[in-house]
TrEMBL record:
Family (UniProt): Belongs to the beta-class carbonic anhydrase family.
Cytoplasm recorded as keyword: no
GO cellular component term of the entry, any: membrane
Positions of region (Disordered): 297-340
Organism for this UniProt entry: Streptomyces triculaminicus
Reported function: Catalyzes the reversible hydration of carbon dioxide to form bicarbonate.
Keyword Chloroplast found: no
All copies of domain SLC26A/SulP transporter, residue ranges: 22-294
Protein name: carbonic anhydrase
Protein EC: 4.2.1.1
Compartment annotation: Membrane
Cofactor (UniProt): Zn(2+)
Chain positions recorded as Zn(2+) binding sites: 522, 524, 583, 586
Catalytic activity annotation: hydrogencarbonate + H(+) = CO2 + H2O
Length: 713
């Protein structure tokens, strides 16, 4: 039998060419953004300049090939500047390369453990929570700024952050004018380049601001007397070498590198974490800096993966125009996103590493033309961006300010490992204090209540409401309709909960509400929003109705209640995210299916006979969308871990997507989303499983949120 081979279709060939062009464009944009930053990191760490591009090259090649990472700027880690500089100063560069290799091996082991036992890693370091991680990164930013400011002023940095701070007035008095001129030119480009008007931005977009700023600074340095960096060719002689110190000290150094690298790139999958380990092993062997999977994320326009939803609104409100925010990586990410239409492919990630490898191998001699002050400005801007005021405000709101401040101060004063230990200690002390306060509030009258003694733990079975049963003297007058249960619950709140939340509620009464999220969900009594989101007073602005429906604008004046709540949350409260949450067993979805199936209710006519049927007409687009999906047989909404159970569940999932579209039809929402200050999310809660699913809008898939996913920034 003869098999004929058909040549590739012209359409497929054009798609492959377009994809290749997108990959090349995206990889070049990120390369041009990452290399200047990596040079600045190498200079700040006291490493050879070529160590930065080597780390960028390895980050792209190793992480793209082995880590399953999509296009993200893997390379020299900004958060590790302080740790690396300290280790280089103490042990030398060759020993630092050995520590990088050992840290990569540790990441490989941890990645394998996460793949084999996902829940184990979720329980491994429970004490290192978000406040400690955020305090650690903020302290790193403060230390970077204090360490680079003397170089910006033309002076020599001291060995400690406090020494740099004490010497700052004297450095300002004897600032070198040409150095200040080149630094000012660098800052001006970083600030102005992303703000070019539309005609100029069209041709300027492929060049990231960091690259342009470095080029302008280098050109300016040719005409003024400023110090340039010391550049040497890439050398692989006798690298690496173990430091001459006890094993315990070496272990501490490795732990610090792994800890900070993990804090800088939270949320990595086990495979990507292992890929980061491969990159660090190879980078250390080749003489490169430690690698992180999102090394230039402090300047990304999108929210970092580690930033949780609870601070999203604060982050959007805190984003003032600055050279850090609108710096090189934002331009690179914009160019990459607009060229590729998505975060990128593995081929683009590998190409990104190839360009960096060629740079490290062929162009290191050209680095000697770069003024040192230009690289110092780039790194200073990174440090400023790492101190997020949204994290500070969130820590105050959640009662974690002491942990955040203690970690920040201890890291700046004593070092990373000591700062983390201080943060864990403060966390433990606060936890003991809260437990003691709860114990005293709940069991302070244990002797008087010994006859009716039982423990009321949070979210334990309360079907018989033993904890909310009123006294017998009140029972006779509280029997009608559920009033007995209501009064008992309020009484239990006043006795057990009010003393614990009174201070926080008093603060909210003084300062007013500033919720970070609008939560639109169903009125179903089984859906307890504060429970499934672990929220407290002032966190969620909640809108509930039958079927979690969002009427589109202009549908009916009688439905303005939901739109008014959305407008108030978006325009007045300035929330940073809106979540539409559906749930299993939704009576509204079942009613829509029943009305559509019955002869009398077929089509859900607008002239329904009851308020409920009139309200449910806003669910008609969801029903039509589900029917259209079924008829076309494509674009099916799905659950990642299992099949959709039935039509009620399928309609509930489709309804979440449809209501998100309705939200975008409202002008205030569309405007804030376009500005980048508002994000929309979809969620589905399965009541019987007590399991939340989050929507990935690109794949139209709802993925289960697992307990081991940490909320780190």
């Amino acid at each position: 039998m003869r098999v004929e081979k058909h040549p590739p279709s012209p359409t497929r060939g054009r798609e492959m060419i377009m994809r290749a062009r997108r990959d090349v464009s995206a990889s070049v944009s990120l390369f041009l953004a990452a290399v200047p930053l990596s040079l600045g990191i190498a200079l700040a760490c006291g490493a050879p300049l070529w160590a930065g591009p080597v780390a960028v090259a390895v980050g792209g090649l190793a992480a793209g090939a082995f880590g399953g990472a999509s296009l993200r700027a893997s390379g020299a880690a900004t958060g590790l500047i302080v740790v690396t500089a300290e280790l280089v100063q103490r042990h030398g560069w060759r020993a630092m390369c050995a520590i990088t290799v050992l840290a990569g091996a540790a990441q490989l082991v941890l990645g394998a453990v996460r793949m084999a036992r996902p829940s184990l890693m979720g329980r491994a370091l429970p004490a290192i929570g978000p406040p400690i991680v955020r305090g650690l990164l903020a302290a790193t930013g403060v230390t970077i700024v204090l360490g680079r400011l003397p170089a910006v002023l033309g002076s020599r940095p001291n060995e400690s952050a406090l020494g740099n701070l004490a010497a700052l007035p004297a450095d300002m008095m004897r600032a070198h004018l040409p150095t200040l001129l080149v630094g000012a030119a660098t800052v001006a480009v970083l600030v102005a380049w992303p703000r070019l008007p539309a005609p100029a931005a069209r041709w300027a977009r492929p060049a990231p601001a960091a690259f342009v700023a470095l080029a302008v600074a280098t050109a300016t340095g040719l005409f003024v007397d400023v110090a340039s960096v010391t550049a040497s060719p890439w050398a692989l002689t006798a690298l690496p070498a173990l430091p001459d110190e006890p094993a315990l000290g070496l272990l501490g150094a490795v732990v610090m590198v792994v800890l900070v690298a993990s804090a800088e790139t939270p949320g990595l999958s086990a495979r990507a974490f292992a890929g980061q380990g491969v990159a660090n092993v190879v980078s250390g062997l080749l003489g490169g800096l430690p690698v992180a999977g999102g090394a230039i994320h402090p300047w990304r326009h999108t929210r970092p993966s580690g930033e949780d939803e609870s601070t999203a609104g604060d982050a959007s409100r805190d984003r003032a125009p600055s050279s850090a925010e609108d710096g090189p990586t934002r331009s690179a990410q914009k160019a990459a996103g607009e060229a590729a239409g998505e975060e990128g492919s593995r081929a683009a990630t590998v190409l990104y590493g190839v360009w960096a490898l060629l740079c490290a191998a062929l162009f290191t001699a050209a680095f000697a033309w770069i003024p040192a002050v230009a690289l110092a400005v780039l790194i200073t801007a990174v440090g400023v961006r790492m101190v997020r005021f949204a994290h500070l405000r969130h820590a105050r709101r959640q009662g974690d300010f002491a942990v955040y401040a203690a970690t920040l101060g201890a890291v700046v004063l004593f070092g990373v490992l000591q700062g983390v230990i201080v943060g864990i200690s403060v966390t433990a002390l606060l936890a003991l204090r809260r437990r003691w306060a709860g114990f005293r509030s709940r069991y302070g009258q244990a002797v008087a209540d010994a006859v009716d003694a039982h423990r009321c733990l949070p979210w334990t079975p309360w079907r018989q409401h033993d904890c909310t049963r009123p006294a017998d003297a009140e029972a006779d007058t509280a029997e009608i309709g559920g009033e007995r249960q209501l009064l008992g619950g309020v009484s239990a709140f006043q006795r057990n909960t009010a003393p614990l939340v009174r201070d926080e509620l008093a603060r909210l009464a003084r300062e007013g509400q500033r919720p970070s999220q609008l939560f639109l969900t169903c009125a179903d009594s089984r859906l307890v929003t504060s429970m499934i989101t672990s929220s407290g007073p002032g966190d969620l602005f909640t809108v509930r109705n039958v079927g979690n429906l969002m009427p589109p604008p202009g549908s009916d004046a009688s439905c303005d209640s939901v739109a008014a709540a959305v407008e108030y949350a978006v325009e007045v409260l300035k929330v940073g995210s809106i979540t539409v949450c559906g749930h299993s067993g939704c009576g509204a979805m079942q009613a829509l299916l029943d009305l559509a199936a019955s002869p009398a209710g077929h089509g859900l006519p607008g002239g329904g006979q009851t308020p409920l049927t009139r309200w449910l007409r806003h669910g008609r687009p969801s029903l039509a969308r589900m029917q259209r999906i079924g008829r076309l047989g494509r674009g099916e909404v799905a659950l990642a871990e299992r099949l959709v159970a039935d039509d009620v569940e399928r309609l509930a999932l489709v309804n979440v997507m449809q209501q998100l579209d309705h939200l975008m039809a409202h002008a205030c929402v569309a405007r804030r989303v376009a500005e980048g200050s508002l994000q929309l999310h979809g969620m589905y809660f399965h009541v019987g499983e007590a399991q939340a699913y989050v929507l990935d809008r690109r794949s139209r898939t709802f993925t289960a949120v697992r307990p081991e996913v940490l909320d780190a920034a």
